[in-house]
Design a protein that fits this description.
It is a single chain. Helices cover about 75% and strands about 0% of the residues. The protein is mostly helical. It has a single domain, classed as Ribosomal protein L20, C-terminal domain (c-terminal domain of poly(a) binding protein, Orthogonal Bundle), CATH 1.10.1900.
């Protein structure tokens, strides 16, 4: 049985790793020994960052909704409680967009939440 020669696979793996390390500074983009852990760490941080971005967007929507609600004499928590009580199911992203782009519709939602 012939021995397994891995030259082609090794070159492919290293090429893929260098492609992922593109844009890194210094030896981290050239040397495999340094690129491998750097790429791994970047992947972990990117994974975590996608979750953080979702959290930050939700916080931004809450701030925008609160600011718009306070113009109508309501706080964020009272607005959300009123919407839930009246079974108005609109998510925060849409509410923030309405507050910014369609103030008349947002005012109507506020009035419905006040009842």
């Amino acid at each position: 049985m012939p021995r397994v020669k891995r030259g082609v696979l090794r070159i492919k793996k290293r090429k893929a790793l260098r492609q992922k390390a593109k844009g890194f500074r210094g030896r981290n983009k050239n040397l495999i020994r340094m690129a491998r852990p750097t790429v791994t760490k970047a992947g972990k941080q990117a994974f975590a960052g996608r979750r953080v971005r979702k959290q930050e967007m939700r916080q931004l929507w809450q701030i925008r909704i609160n600011a718009a609600a306070r113009l109508h004499g309501l706080t964020y928590s009272k607005l959300m409680a009123g919407l839930k009580k009246n079974k108005i199911d609109i998510d925060r992203k849409i509410l923030a967009q309405l507050a910014n782009e369609q103030p008349k519709i947002f005012t109507a939602i506020i009035e419905a939440a006040k009842k």
